[in-house]
Write a structure and sequence with these properties.
The structure holds three protein chains of three kinds. By secondary structure, chain B is of the alpha/beta class. Chain B folds into three domains: 51-166 and 345-379 and 416-437, Periplasmic binding protein-like II (D-Maltodextrin-Binding Protein, domain 2, 3-Layer(aba) Sandwich), CATH 3.40.190.10; 172-339 and 474-541, 3-Layer(aba) Sandwich (D-Maltodextrin-Binding Protein, domain 2), CATH 3.40.190.10; 380-413, no CATH class. Chain B has 21 helices and 17 strands. The two termini of chain C are 25 Å apart. The chains are: A mainly alpha, B alpha/beta, C mainly alpha.
Chain lengths: 287, 543, 303
């Protein structure tokens, strides 16, 4: 492509984008600064932009807390089940829907789409999950949201663009559709699979909603809910007589906990990043 | 359109197939099953003593994190059963309990706020009738508190379904900064005018006159009202009952002149920058932003918070210090000493679907007995407190290094002695007195030996002593009528809207106008019916 | 279809049907089964009696809700905020995508993109606290800047006049990067030869956008529009819940926060179910309307 002149638009746009990025960096930076300050440093600093003190106390507090460690374990299990289970089921549904000769295809398609926009409400869902004995088990953390219709559609659109010859060759060789899905389709669709995987992993790692609604046993709380509780309970503790000496989690503790909660995602992110833009593109554009 | 009808057909199909397969589970077979389950359980306890006794008690309570759980687990040896814990995040707790009760949870003991619709639950037979479970000898505490005169408003149709949890509402206090007082000449603060002047002087030195923070509506405002009982506006539990009885006429303090004066005063403080203008939005940033940073001159806070606040402030400047001062207007003849005005706050109950109701009751009884309180407050002998444990008069010695390790603090306050089944830092000696009221009046407050030696002004014993004049209750404060759950949410919404508008009004006229709007709104929103219901109760039962 | 060919079809595609069946079982079990709980909205619900045994009270629960002026307030707010979101939060990621696409320096573009993706990974509990601290009086960066320019402080989160704006702006800041991914990808998916021939014809940048890029990503925009509008009414709970306070309920309280705050102590769960039902129905209406609008504009829709 020919090199264009730098226009006023380019300059203005560049400035706007840079400003935006700067603004977005501020909360992120503040989080880091606060997590590593001492109490004195925190209280003395007004804007929390320039680090004036340094301490890793809250981090050692966090890592020695069995509750936090347990929460991480639960979150890990939740992520594995939600990601693998979700991916497999979405892929199966997506692939099945690409087969044009299935009876009732349109009906099934509508059946699935409808659930994206209408649901029974959270109370009926709770009651139902209770009836089938899922509440208070680890299953309630991922089963209710296992299949995302949106990702299913994304995968379907991407599978459609795979050349039919590949499948036909495999069929001739005697493979059935399930084997084709796992041996051919999925490996070929790396970008979109990576994209959906990232979305799923992020979703289940951060999730607290399912636990908050359906999980009453504190020893099965995922990290997301523990984080939420730490922050919320601080608000609750403030309006009760805390009694001399009882310790409120400090602001630094909250920030450190947040950082730890975000860490796995941020670590994963650079590896997956190159895939998912391409993945989303393939999935979304071909309609 | 064709596609949409196809979708609707699909929905109908799905619904009917799903309905068919589950109708037998959700059907009407449950009531008889539940009742017979309860009866047979009670029978089996009585007739088959010693044989098939359940091994676990499931307890549902707020704020059960790791530390709290380990604290409660110390009761297991005494209890003879394992305790299983259920909980929910603090801000979801009421919702969760409501949902659990409505969906038949198998918890053996649930502790929740009394604003939840337990009366409806009792009427719908979702709670166990405690009369069948309570034994006056085995459960002496429960027996005394549930049959006391004070709590007779908690009966439903004369039967006992909930157990009130003993409560100390008296530990909120007013503090001022000793060092700032000195700088402004140690003025007397006995009247509102004097308080106002002191705040203005503090403001000139760059401090905030008085610091406030709301979180879910009106909670911290109540504390202001306690100490502005100067105006006669004191003594409310803003999300609960707040009655005044004069010459046999019941009025609600929410719409009283005293409240109006208090709100107008707060509005004045707001307009003149004598209070932090972000009181409604700062939420949990309040302590760390204002108090710990030493910016606030006066404060209404639980006395227990003060040593911590002092400690944090002193890292900035060792002269920063809060001290307790008596309530304003305490000497006035019209002073009405009603703080919080109530004797309890939470109730404990046992759902009809509990698997081990006797266990749940036993746990509650234990948690309020001398042994139980000692364990919950002192912890484990030889670990957080010395081997000798508690003395006769309720003093125990903590081992600070272990307290730090196990509880996270070195001052000897165990994580969950408070708010769960009792907020009394001690115990109520029901064995020694005939009635609950007498026992409560003679409660024994525990103390660490370290506090006794240093005569720590913020120790629980001293704080409760200081709060005692404000513990007044009237006969209606412990009465919870059915109308509560019908009008409470709406009245709270109306109060929340108007009180905050009044405080933040741009001028005094505006504030007055808003008050004039508020009263009829409150009355029309259920307030009139509400007062009438209590008046009727009073006329029938208390005159 | 003839019976014989149906049977053949089933046999031939049996593994496909198997996969479909597994997936459909999940949908029935976790998406449709709870739906019949909607009956609760019309009942005075009692668990002991179950869904089909509880007393039917017709529209009583709904009447109760609409006679509560705080419910109506929340209802109106939800509409207002939803429209604001559609007008601002939907187009801006698209504009952002174009701006990013026009940036020629690859490293600069990549840095900006990655920074804008970060906030998406925060959840609102934490992000709400950070926003609160940035917008605070006395020690918030924003007020600091305002004072630097001689203005007086504004209590952003405590002022009903600003609250909705704050909602929109902060949500944009958080999600604009992430939401633009799909548009950036779509723009990159347009056949480059189209641009090349445009260059030969001397077409300028704006004309390229108008005649090539926009039509090229029109299908993507359409689908995203339907998805956005279909979801906007019921989403937003986390953000509002973590940013709001009693002083802004009049403009900021939405249906989901109202339900959680006020209805938590109402014994008849049917009322809550009714509120949830209203939420879902309106959401569906939004979806159908947006679908129709997209159809009207000649684009491909979901239905």
């Amino acid at each position: 492509m020919k090199v264009r002149k730098v226009t006023l638009f380019d300059v203005v746009s560049g400035i706007v984008l840079a400003l935006l990025a700067l603004v977005l960096l501020v909360p992120f930076w503040q989080m880091i600064v606060v997590a590593f300050s001492t109490t004195e440093g925190y209280v003395k600093s007004t804007y929390h932009l320039i680090p004036t003190s340094f301490s890793v106390d809250v981090f050692s507090q966090l890592f020695s807390s069995s509750e936090i460690m347990k929460g991480m374990l639960i979150s890990l299990i939740n992520v594995l089940c939600g990601w693998l289970g979700g991916l497999i089921l979405c892929a199966m549904g997506a692939y099945a829907l690409t087969k044009k000769n299935i009876i009732g295809r349109k009906f099934i398609f509508n059946f699935i789409i409808f659930t994206m926009f209408f649901n029974g409400g959270i109370i009926p869902l709770y009651i139902w999950l209770k009836k089938i004995y899922i509440t208070d088990t680890i299953f309630c953390l991922f089963l209710p949201t296992l299949i995302s219709t949106f990702y299913l559609l994304l995968l379907k659109n991407s599978f459609i663009s795979i050349p039919a010859e590949m499948e036909e060759a495999a069929l001739i060789d005697g493979y059935n559709e399930m084997q084709i899905l796992f041996k051919i389709i999925i490996p070929v669709s790396k970008p979109v699979i990576a994209a959906v995987s990232l979305f799923l992993i992020v979703q289940y790692w951060n999730d607290y909603y399912n636990a908050m609604m359906f999980m009453n046993k504190p020893d099965l709380y995922p990290l997301g809910l523990i984080l939420r509780n730490v922050i919320i309970s601080k608000q609750a503790l403030l309006r009760t007589p805390v009694a001399a000496g009882a310790v409120l989690p400090s602001e630094q503790y909250n920030m450190a906990l947040t950082m730890i909660a975000m860490l796995p995602i941020l670590v994963l992110y650079p590896f997956v990043q190159k895939y998912f833009v391409a993945g989303v593109m393939i999935g979304a554009v071909k309609e | 359109m064709k596609r949409i009808s196809a979708v609707l057909l699909a929905v109908l199909l799905a619904l009917s197939t799903a309905a068919c397969s589950t109708s037998d589970r959700g059907g009407s077979s449950t009531p008889p099953k539940t009742e017979s389950k309860v009866e047979s359980k009670v029978e089996s306890q009585e007739t088959a003593k010693g044989s098939e006794e359940p091994k676990t008690v499931k307890m549902m309570a707020d704020g059960m994190d790791d530390k709290a759980i380990s604290q409660w687990k110390l009761l297991e040896p005494e209890l003879g059963m394992e305790i299983e814990f259920l909980t929910a995040p603090g801000d979801q707790f009421a919702q969760k309990v409501n949902t659990m009760m409505a969906t038949g949870e198998e918890a053996d003991l649930i502790t929740c706020e009394d604003s939840l619709p337990w009366r409806s639950w009792a009427e719908d037979e979702l709670l166990i009738d405690l009369d069948e479970l309570i034994d006056p000898v085995d459960h002496i505490y429960v027996e005394k508190i549930t049959s006391s005169d004070l709590f007779k408003g908690y009966l439903n149709d004369g039967k006992r379904y909930v157990i009130p949890n003993a409560h100390h509402g008296n530990d909120w206090t007013m503090v001022v900064r000793k060092d700032i007082m000195e700088k402004i000449g140690n003025p007397e603060i006995n009247t509102m005018e004097e308080y106002y002047d002191a705040m203005v002087k503090a403001k000139e030195m760059g401090y905030i006159g008085v610091g406030f923070s709301l979180d879910d509506g009106l909670v911290k405002l109540q504390t202001a009202f306690q100490f502005f009982s100067y105006f006669g506006g004191g003594g409310m539990k803003p999300d609960g009952r707040s009655f005044d009885i004069n010459n046999d006429v019941v009025t609600d303090l929410s719409v009283s002149d005293g409240t109006k004066q208090t709100l107008l005063f707060l509005n004045k403080l707001y307009r003149e920058d004598l209070m932090n203008k972000d009181y409604a939005t700062i939420k949990d940033g309040f302590l760390s932003t204002y108090v710990d940073a030493g910016k606030v001159f006066s404060l209404f806070t639980p006395a227990g918070n003060i040593p911590m606040a002092n400690e944090k402030m002193q890292t900035l400047d060792p002269s920063f210090e809060y001290e307790i001062i008596p309530a304003i207007g305490a000497d006035r003849p019209e002073f009405r000493p009603i703080t919080q005005g109530f004797n309890m706050w939470k109730v404990s109950l046992i759902p009809a679907t509990a698997k081990n109701p006797a266990g749940g009751l036993k746990l509650f009884e234990l948690a309020n007995s001398r042994t139980g309180r000692e364990i919950l407050i002192g912890g484990e002998k030889g670990v957080t407190m010395t081997e000798e444990g508690f003395s006769e008069d309720g003093v125990f010695t903590i081992i600070p290094e272990n307290c730090e390790k196990v509880w996270g603090n070195a001052t000897g306050i165990s994580p969950r002695w408070w708010g769960l089944m009792s907020t009394v830092y001690g115990y109520i000696p029901v064995e020694e007195y005939d009635t609950y009221e007498e026992a409560y009046a003679n409660e024994m407050i525990f103390s660490t030996s370290q506090d006794v030696e240093s005569d720590n002004p913020f120790s629980n014993r001293n704080v409760i002593e200081a709060g005692r004049p404000y513990g007044g209750v009237n006969v209606l404060s412990e009465v919870a009528l059915p109308i509560e759950s019908e009008v409470r949410p709406n009245l709270n919404n109306i109060k929340g809207e108007y009180w905050n508008k009044i405080i933040t009004a741009p001028s005094e006229e505006e504030a007055e106008k808003l008050w004039e709007e508020f009263v009829p709104q409150w009355e029309a929103g259920g307030g009139t019916d509400y007062v009438a219901a209590y008046q009727e109760y009073y006329d029938e039962n208390c005159k | 279809m003839k019976k014989a060919s149906v049977w053949l079809n089933l046999k031939r595609y049996r593994y496909v049907y198997l996969m479909l069946a597994i997936v459909l079982v999940w949908y029935i079990a976790f998406a449709y089964a709870p739906m019949f709980g909607l009956i609760m909205s019309f009942e005075k619900f009692s668990f002991a009696k179950g869904f089909f045994g509880s007393e039917l009270v017709g529209l009583n629960n709904f009447k109760m809700l609409f006679s509560d002026r705080y419910f109506v307030q929340a209802f109106k707010n939800t509409f207002a905020i939803s429209f604001l979101r559609i007008v601002f939060e939907f187009p801006i990621p698209i504009i952002f995508a174009f701006m990013i696409n026009e940036v020629r320096s690859k490293p600069f573009r990549s840095v900006i993109q990655n920074i804008t993706y970060f906030p998406h990974f925060f959840n609102w509990i934490v992000f709400g606290g950070l926003i609160g601290s940035v917008l605070a009086l006395d020690r918030g960066v924003v007020n600091g800047i305002i004072q630097l320019f001689g203005g007086s402080q504004i209590d952003f989160l405590g002022d009903s006049r600003y609250f909705r704006t704050i909602l929109i702006v902060t949500n944009l800041l958080k999600e604009v990067g992430w939401n633009s991914i799909i548009y950036i990808a779509a723009i990159q998916g347009i056949n480059p030869t189209l641009y090349e021939s445009a260059d030969l014809d001397g077409v300028n940048r704006w004309q390229k956008i108008r005649y090539i890029s926009l039509p090229g990503i029109a299908p993507t925009i359409s689908i995203m529009f339907i998805l956005f509008v279909g979801g906007v009414f019921t989403q937003g709970f986390d953000q509002v819940y973590n940013l709001y306070s009693p002083v802004v309920y009049d403009k900021g309280d939405i249906l989901s926060t109202y339900i959680v705050r006020t209805l938590k102590e109402v014994p008849n769960l049917g009322v809550q179910a009714a509120a949830g039902f209203i939420n879902s129905v309106i959401s569906m209406l939004f979806l159908l309307v947006s679908n129709w609008v997209v159809r009207l504009m000649g684009q491909e829709s979901i239905y």
